[in-house]
Amino acid sequence: MRDVIEAALKGAEADYVEIRLEETEHTFLWYRGRELEDIGRSTGVGGNVRALVKGGWGFVSFNFNGSPDLREKVSLAVAQARLVNGDDFRLAEAPPVVDIVPAHVLKDPRAVSLAEKKAVLDQYIEVIWGVPGIESSSIYYGDGRRRVTFASSLGSYIEQENVDVSLRLNAMARDGGEVQQAGVSLGSLGDFSFAESLHPQAREVAEKAVTMLKAPKVRGGDYTVVLDPVLAGVFIHEAFGHLSEADHVYQDQRMRDIMVLGRRFGGPHLNVVDGAAVPGLRGSYKYDDEGVPASRTYLIRDGVLVGRLHSRETAAKMGEGPTGNARAISYRFAPIVRMTNTFIEPREGTLQDIIADVKEGVYACNWYGGMTSMEQFTFSAGEAYMIRNGRVAESLRPVMLSGNLFTTLQNLDAVAGDLDMNQGGGCGKGGQSPLPVSNGSPHIRIRKCLVGGA
Amino acid sequence: MLERLLERAKQVAQEAEAFHVERRETPVVFEANRLKAVETHETEGVALRVIKEGRIGFSSANTTSDVEGLVARAVEVAPFGARAYLDLPSAQSYPEVRVHDSAVSQVPIDEMVHLGQTLIDRVRDHSQEVLCDSRVVRSEATVTLANTRGCYFQYSRTVFAVAIEGTVIRGTDMLFLFDYLSSCHPIRDVAPLAESLVQQLERSQVVAPVQSGSMPVVFMPWAVIGGLLPPLLAGLNGRMVLQRTSPLVDRLGERVVAEQFSLMDNPTHEYVPSSRPCDDEGIPSQQTPLIQQGVVTNFLYDLQTAGQARRRSTSSAERGSGSLPTPSSSVLLVSPGQHSFDDMVKDMEVGLVVERLLGAGQSNILGGEFNANVLLGYKVERGKMVGRVKDTLVSGNVYQALSRLEGLGREARWVGGMAQVPPLYFKELSVAAKG
Predict the structure, then answer these.
(1) Which alpha helices (DSSP H) does A90-196 contain, by range?
(2) What is the pLDDT of residue B58?
């Protein structure tokens, strides 16, 4: 195959051409209610060609049987790129790489039989349904292997494989017309074993769903909020992570002025890092989808913006170095700038230390989701409690929190020391979702955070 | 080629159904006011469902070449699969629902580029401050469905879509404008999109903060499909009813919202991108009234959930990529009312008009809750829109809110190629705002 790919790249009349071929295998088990309602196995084979001519991009994606006619796809991509007539530019330098990267695998999910997987999940069904008051549950388990071959006209040739595992447990409780649900999302890079011992978590989500039926809603308004590591991870991903993706910034001079390196976004206790060059997390890899080696990038250091995430194009146009953050969810898409493993660095102390002087506030944990429009963002908690006189008090219905880039990070006034990475997340951008990422943080405290309620 | 797959499957299972989609999509992409990329996406997908010893097995791939692999994987998982409560349909006669216009695939790329550039130029003629991203996309897909009971059907659909997003940054204030049009016909006139963006911009010239509390709120069509319809549809989904996790369990035939509210699922609307002659299991498309004058009249079922609930499929089977069909809405129609938008605004002393939401659907939608940031919305003071709100959340329970619906607009519009919706006017919703 390598010679076919390299032959197709040769002689293309473009400033740059890359070919990405992909093979995938996916297995899933989906319990809706007590029963395993949906189980299936899928395979996929596809590829794409991306070409750059005088600053304009052409992109062609395709499925194939056997061996694709890559020359034809290259010509089409080049012809399309020619139609664009863009502003000429050169991609940021990235030395050609030739490498073969096997998957990072501990307990390989592919070596676990369907019967074993089902046996594990059946136990969680029993645990959840054993909790009085549970009306239904939903459990989704999926594992997938993705093998990508990347080659570029600059001489890179990389074969890279990864194995991703994800699991979501959900429990629903109902009382008349009231329905409440609680859930937990987990995942790993190439390791089935995390999925085997979640009995306590299964019981906990079931109990929470039932408890929430009786819980009151919070009154909407500003509160001091304390976020657990899971929700704080979602918070930093939404509140800041997306705006550190250079493709949101590079073409807009006003945005560049706002996101100028050296600008202060938070207090000196705030340090934010993103990077795929950390082994074993769901957002980890050796090379991104442009063949650039992964790195570890400080976005905020001591409260000051010091870096951002780049593709080769955004790095070139902003005169900064590539960071290896160009990712595509599949061969159907061109790579765009994405986060990988994003976290707030730990300081010191515990939850107790940072709630001690909160008279009235909200302790928000776990997540339903999060979204950003850059300046304003939302992140929703899967569970919430009032904080009264320095203690976690009564349970609340889940809350939606909203923030503003320019005030909320400034109001983040305490960072504990208990960093935890959440591996259950999936990120969406530009129609590419869910991309495996991880987020993390220690417990954090935010003053005057807007909480939605009844 | 599906015949070969079915023949092979029939040798090892009692029943089988094959579903195949082939699609070619050509997007023309603009970024920062300029053409950035021209793309072509060719995709193919095939799904196989088998019934073996009363249980359902499933596999999928993106090529039909590996017949043995598809059959082997579906049969491998079948012993673990759900008990089959469905009978696959035999040959059916289908209503004529036109969703294909060959003119779409003939629109030259040059013309698509011209259309996108014209749209961006029009918006920027109004204000040079706006930075525009846009996508002009044409696509053509062919869906083929066949099963071992003799059902075979194939139809093609074309879609032409234009999306535009405008960004205005002043200091640290960011404003996002957006609209989208789609049709099974080519779109030749982008004036409505340009006018919509200009109108959003005009209404957003200044920031006008609101105070937390209860107030009258108008949900515009995008906010209705983003914030209100998802929790409502979760409750109307036959699967949720079956699992008894819908607030509407046991309430069929009862009034659950205000009398002026009616919602219909109608996939037979011609030339609407989400329309179709049949659902993804080969059941002929039908109109399904979901809520009529406030009364729950139907839930949405596919074959399996209908079998479990001892009801008939409402022709609502939809397939995502690589999983079994599941009940889903197709084209939603909310009946318009009597009010003009202007009258609603004039009626408010202090209130809010919500154009678009951020983060809707990320709360307990199963319970009917909506809770979202107002991505774009305008404050009303003494009957006039006075500027845009920021850092504002709107929340409630869709059943409670629709029970106290004050009125519906008489101007319904298409949103997202899947719903025709008027503005909805609520006398009292909970709003939380910074300050």
Answers:
(1) 114-129
(2) 96
A152 and A18 Cβ atoms separated by less than 8 Å: yes
In tens, the pLDDT along A168-219 reads: 999 999 998 899 999 999 999 999 999 999 999 999 999 999 999 999 999 9
User: Are B52 and B158 in a shared domain?
Assistant: yes
pLDDT score at A454: 55
Q: Which amino acid makes up residue A83? A: L
* pLDDT of residue A27 exceeding 80: yes
Domain boundary pick from B201, B231, B266? B201
User: What fold does the segment set A2-213 form as a domain?
Assistant: PmbA/TldD fold (3.30.2290)
**Does residue B321 sit in the same domain as residue B431?**
yes
Whether residue B311 is found in the same domain as residue B432? yes
CB half-sphere exposure, B150, CA atoms < 13 A = 4
Quick one: B94 and B218 in the same domain? no
Q: Which domain holds residue B368?
A: 206-435
Mean pLDDT of the B394-408 span: 96
DSSP structure class, residue B331: S
| Residue spans per domain, chain A | 2-213, 221-452
Kindly state the tokens that stand for A77.
């991509």
B-facing residues of A in 178-237 (CB < 8 A) are 178-181, 220-222
Closest C-alpha among B188, B183, B200 to residue B132: B200
DSSP string, A285-331: -SB-TTSPBP-EEEEEETTEE---B--HHHHHHHT----S-EE-SST
Is A433's Cβ below 8 Å from some Cβ in B?
no
Using the 3D structure, point to which of B201, B216, B249 is the last residue of a domain: B201
Comparing CB atoms, the residue among A174, A374, A380 nearest residue B359 is A380
Same domain, B191 and B271: no
Question: Residue A408: is its pLDDT beyond 90?
Answer: yes
Who among A62, A398, A453 is closest to B364 (CB)? A398
| Model confidence pLDDT, tens digit, residues A123-181 | 999 999 999 999 999 999 999 999 999 999 999 999 999 999 999 999 999 998 899 99
Chain A (326-385) residues lying within 8 Å, Cβ to Cβ, of chain B: 332, 334, 368-380
pLDDT, one tens digit per residue, over B295-348 is 999 999 999 999 999 999 999 999 976 889 999 999 999 999 999 999 999 999
Most B CBs within 10 Å: which of A42, A174, A263, as the mutation test of the B interface? A42
Q: What ipTM goes with this model?
A: 0.94
Q: Which sign does the torsion angle of CA B71, B73, B75, B81 carry? A: negative
Could B58 and A40 be called an inter-chain contact, meaning their C-beta atoms sit closer than 8 Å? yes
Task: Based on the fold, state whether residues B248 and B330 are members of the same structural domain.
Answer: yes
End-to-end Cα spacing for chain A: 60
